[in-house]
Amino acid sequence: MMVHSEEYKTNIDDSIPASSEQTVEESITGSSSSLGHIALKSANVAPTTATTITSPSSPSSTYHPSIMFCGECTSCSPSKTPLVSSTPWMNLTHVPMKRKKYSKMYFISPKDVEIVTNDDDDDNDGSSAYESDYNEEKEPEVMDLEDIGNAMKSSDAAKRSTNNKELKEMVTPKQAAALKKEGYRIIGTHSAVKLCRWTKHQLRGRGGCYKHTFYGITSYQCMEATPSLACANKCVFCWRHHKNPVGREWRWKIDDPNEIVEQAVKEHISMIKEARGIPGVKKDRWQEAHTVRHCALSLVGEPIMYPRIDEFLADLHRRKISTFLVTNGQHPQAIESLRPITQLYVSVDASTPETLEAIDRPLFKDAWDRLRSSLKSLKHKGQRTVARLTVVKGWNSDEIEGYAKLIALGHCSLVEVKGVTFCGKSDASNLNMSNTPWHHEVVAMVKKLQQELQKIRDATPEGKEKIPEYGIACEHKHSVSVLLARVDLFAVDDPVTGKRRWRTWINYDKFQELAAKHELDPSFTFGVQDYVDDTPSWALYGAEEEGFDPTDTRHRKKRKYPKYTKFDNDGVPTHDHDHQPLNGEERAKLRSLMELKKQEIGDGVSVIGLESGEKVIHDASLMFRGLTIRK
Fold it and tell me: How far apart are CA 59 and CA 37, in angstroms?
């Protein structure tokens, strides 16, 4: 950009960032004391003789450096009202063109603009500067009319982020009070930690979470946290009942990532200390719990929205804390730029755009496209990636083929299928207990999903890349969770027995070693198989323990036990509470009762939609599963 006025030069240099000549944040400040005109150096558009515009006369107005050709008028003057005028910094000015209609907006970048004064002894004019380079410059970037609004929003966000003091805090006092009431420890202005119930369970020797079964984490050394309480979705099954903020982009103050991690660890350890008084806590586990080894970034909100998420993750790794990050798939670019982490999840809550709208209630209008882009980006991440399906019976439990197609986009390392946890009624959710699937229903869904994935693999033409083969590796009945894993990454054939052996667990020390190497040398890469470990037999699908660690003791509330422990394919009980087979007469009686239930319902399964949007499910095959006895 050439400047022929010292006054203009001062104004421009003060307002344009030196680091990026063409960023949206650039601005040109006009001056009332020295009017001039802007000469277009180059633009591969149909020109007219009117190639100059009058510079702004108001010293308080800040103008975007790009010049817009409206493409319609042939006689408009620069003094007329701009075609697009939203905020002072984004005023755009007409330049006449020999066009009758416009479908595109042509923008000239700052490097194509020359500012000259009205000095009489200056021989340059706008048209000569324009004409001299007309055929030498490349065609300017074209922006659609509908994209202008998005550009203005992006520029506004970028400009606001430069002055953090002017931004508001994310969490309002009312929201903070509601979150604290539910046990959250608020950190700074937008982060939080909370003690997971599985942490407390394993401290007492009552079993670990599904991540302990599937991946070998130590639940009592896991910190559940988030650097962003805000989210871009309002999912019907959200267990936080939407007490957190929502938003499509970051528009709040940005806290320092190192301070967030430091405070999060302190708050977590403080809660561990308080847990010492819980009856049954094992002293050795309680002492070990003071060292955080894992971080589940799935507490609430969308962690990947945090603008400094990469630094946040790096700090966790430097502390030898593994990272399990869950995203809802609405920020694909953030996924692409994310550093290698222990395990990256994308939530796949629906198999069609319509179901996604109903289940996730996203703020983004293009939520479906964003989800697909996020899944595609997983294919190239290199580390462990997971498609996480939360099954809400009556809402998203059908259309298995659609789920298979989505998973195939990312060649995901793992697929977690988990039944939704009913967290009680609220104004923010219209779910009920009948929407929570039983473990055997999730298992049946996973088997169908595996078959659909195999169909896609088998149907791939020769010469085309096939999707990976998947197998059912683990289950955790207590969490109603089942794990599908890629055979090529996690399965090995035992040379002695010939049986398949799974390696879904993680060698956390090895991961930290690899992550540290990448931190020192970003060109260093590593893959999934570089930090796998053997999965114990009790964690495997079909094992007698059903995913419950045998070193712990299963605890049942109020000494309640299932009245029946095994069932046939129709749901009729075959074994009693002591795992003893029922005789033929008992089974026949129970089957008769089920037939009566089917007649009452009108079918085997009935879904009743209420005016409130609630879906109530009646299923005769489940009538005996919830029965309990006291021992």
Answer: 15
Distance CA 100, CA 161 (A): 40
Q: Look at the block and give the residue holding tokens 């002072």.
A: 88
Please say whether the dihedral angle defined by the alpha carbons of residues 398, 402, 408 and 409, taken in this order, is positive or negative.
negative
Q: How far is CA 146 from the centre of its chain?
A: 26
Tokens read off for 616: 């109530």
Residue 485: closest CA among 526, 528, 442, 536 = 528
Structure tokens at 327: 């995203």
Q: At residue 215, what is the residue type?
A: Y
Output Rg (C-alpha) for the chain, integer angstroms.
31
| CA distances, 620 to each of 71, 420, 459, 505, 625 (Å) | 67, 20, 37, 38, 10
Q: Could you read off the pLDDT of 103-162 as tens digits, one per residue?
A: 333 333 333 333 333 333 333 333 333 333 333 344 444 555 445 555 554 555 455 444
> How far apart (Å, rounded) are the C-alpha atoms in residues 506 and 525?
17
292 near 241, Cβ under 8 Å? Answer: no
CA atoms in the 13 A half-sphere facing the CB of 26: 19
Residue 594 half-sphere exposure, CB side, CA atoms within 13 Å? 22
Give the pLDDT score at 529: 96
| Segments of 210-333 assigned E as strands | 222-226, 294-297, 322-327
Alpha-carbon span 471 to 479, nearest angstrom: 20
DSSP 265: H
d(CA 263, CA 188): 9
Q: Are 481 and 416 in contact (CB under 8 A)?
A: yes
Closest CA to 58 of 86, 31, 85: 31
Strand partners, 3: 115
User: Global pTM?
Assistant: 0.72
CA proximity to 55, closest of 126, 142, 137, 156: 126
Give the C-alpha separation, 17 to 8, whole Å. Answer: 15
Q: Which two tokens stand for residue 98?
A: 């020999």
Q: How far apart are CA 385 and CA 388, in angstroms?
A: 10
The closest of 441, 355, 369 to 399, measured between CA atoms, is: 355
Q: How is residue 379 written in tokens?
A: 């294919």
* Cβ(156)–Cβ(249) below 8 Å: no
* Spatial distance between the Cα atoms of 586 and 89, rounded to a whole number of angstroms: 80
Dihedral sign, CA of 55, 60, 65, 69? negative
Instruction: Using alpha carbons, select from 75, 67, 80 the residue that is nearest to residue 50.
Output: 75
CA distance 600 to 251: 54
The residues pairing with 346 across neighbouring beta strands, listed in sequence order, are 327, 387
Per residue in 400-450, pLDDT tens? 999 999 999 999 999 999 998 876 666 666 778 888 899 999 999 999 999
CB 40 within 8 A of CB 126: yes
Token pair for residue 340? 């290698």
**Mean pLDDT score, 513-538:** 96
Angstrom distance (rounded) from CA 131 to CA 126: 9
Angle at 544 (CA atoms; ends 543, 546), nearest 5 degrees: 70
Q: Is 357 exposed, middle or buried (0-12, 13-18, 19+ CB in 10 A)?
A: middle
CA dihedral 499, 491, 476, 456 (to 10 degrees): -110
Helix-strand-coil split of the chain, %, nearest 5: 35, 20, 45
| Residue 504, both tokens | 């879904």
